[in-house]
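This week, think about what follows.
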Amino acid sequence: MVLSPQSDERRRMRRNIRLGSLGAGLENYDFVVYLYVATLISRDFFPAGSSATLRLAQTFAIYAIGFLIRPVAGILIARIADQIGRKRLFVLNVMAMSVATVATGLLPTYVAIGWLAPVLLILMRVIQGCAMGGELPAAAVFVSEHAPRDGVARAGSFQQMVTFIGQLCGAGVAFLSGLIVTNLTPDTPSLAWRLPFLVGGVLGIVSTYLRRKLDETPVFTQRDGNALAIRKTPVREVFRKHYRAALFGALIVSTLVIGNTAYISFWPTYLQISLHIPATKALMTSFISILGALLLMPFWGRVADRRGWRTALLCAATISTVGSVLLLTVLPALPADSSVIYWIGLPGAIGSGASIAMVPGLVSSLFPAEVRQTGYSVSYNLVIATIGGVLGLIMVGLVSLLGVGTPMYVALLGALISVIAAVVVVRLPRYLGVGARPTNDTGTRAGDAALGSIER
């Protein structure tokens, strides 16, 4: 059957949105699976004589290094992408991430080579941080530019959902690896943290293959016809002409970091060190929370497209507040063997997921096409560097000071930021989506037809 040009264009648009999102999901798995085996890594990469809290703090400090390198790498990659296109650096990103992930799974431990073990672990995290710094902003902009005018939020939320499927897979693989080691290979406990990294390497190969099938976004394929200016110094232009958008973008990204840390990434570690929940049960609890949050992300995209960003942000803040207050009331009284623990974090995770779902579309819409990826990368990576990597470390310390309510207090701060963002968002110009300034990159007819079926 021969497709008409319009049908073929719609098919290619759907494929670009799906594959652009899928690649980000696979790379996110590689980067965050570290968190789900953090307690196991802390035992193998630092002296056994150190306290468990110190070893865990050192492990999170190494995790933070991957975040600290992301701004420099991400902004440099974004600068090139705004000049030559979004697609060309995707394969390089995923290859670097895959090599570092496989190498992490093969590293010798502290018992074998002493302090060289954590040094090599740091090196792998630096490589992963470079790859991830360019990946998520690139994927968000790529998907948003392929979306139709009235579907930018939904396309971005779909990409975010797939990204968190990668995180969900990380929790699932870590959980299964723990079961395998416990029941089949108890004499090789290091497999519980090695297997998730090795699986990530296989996923990286799949992602590399998929990236070859992507098309460049319409903004760049139509550049000559639209006479879209190439900015030789996009970073300078972002700070000179779009600094308000960059600051607001950073505000939005901070809700992602806070929500993701409080109720998703830090949650299993928190359950283990604060409530003394067994590792397998804590990982299953995290699995349920991530699943509930990501399944509703496309819904929040629809809310934003139909009701506006302000309404969607206020909904996210309300749900996160209710979930946090519920946890503050119920969690301290729950016994460690209660089955309610599996579900108690779900309301807070859903509220955090609502904020997270809006980040790709909203931040992408804040900047014109010629500096869009640079603007996104500046907003995203500066927040990731300043609080993304260290928030988990800070929360380890806060648990000792504030007790079991620590994640909920942090989440309430995120809800407050969402309310502030809801007030400010209507005052800023936007360049993508409904209400955008009239430009040449606000969507295509093919995109309008395509987005309706990306979830079919």
